[in-house]
Design brief:
Blueprint: H1 3-37, H2 43-47, H3 51-82, H4 90-99, H5 106-122, H6 127-139, H7 141-159
Helix pairs in contact: 1-3, 1-7, 3-4, 3-5, 3-7, 5-6
Length: about 160
């Protein structure tokens, strides 16, 4: 693939990713408003949430997952391509992404993925565990946001 094609694809993917990020940010603000009055991580209180409040939580988790998937599957390897860093396996991609300080650590990235995967597969059968994972994802907003911004910053060095 030509370098100009790679840059164009990366720009289009960032346009899509920015829409996911804006929605995630909006859902996070809505969740913060709910948290002012309700401890949504308490099982009893969670079970008394209005359907629209639960829908906000579901939408947040969907966008959280989408951003993480999109970064891992569609952005990281292209970032390395435009920087001239060859990597073919995902383990190599993540090694370089960590080395370039796009993610803070491989362990953090893997932990985010594991918790997100647990939620996708267990939620809401094991409510207590799901609420712990939900809290982790909500508390990890700034971390995921930093991965997004770090990716943008890195890309901008090569897209100009």
């Amino acid at each position: 693939m030509r370098e100009s094609d790679t840059k164009q694809i990366l720009e289009k993917r960032f346009e899509k990713l920015s829409k996911h990020y804006e929605a995630l940010k909006d859902y996070k603000l809505l969740i913060d408003k709910i948290l002012v009055n309700k401890n949504i991580y308490d099982q009893f209180i969670f079970n008394t949430l209005k359907p629209e409040e639960k829908a906000i939580l579901d939408a947040y988790l969907k966008r959280f997952s989408s951003i993480q998937d999109f970064l891992g599957a569609k952005i990281f390897s292209l970032l390395l391509d435009v920087a001239g860093i060859n990597s073919s396996k995902m383990s190599e991609v993540l090694y370089y992404i960590e080395k370039e300080e796009i993610i803070d650590s491989l362990e953090s990235w893997i932990e985010l993925r594991e918790v997100r995967n647990e939620l996708e597969h267990d939620y809401p059968e094991e409510l207590e565990e799901a609420l712990i994972d939900l809290k982790f994802c909500i508390d990890s907003f700034e971390k995921l946001e930093s991965y997004y911004f770090n990716s943008l910053k890195f890309a901008n060095k090569y897209l100009k």
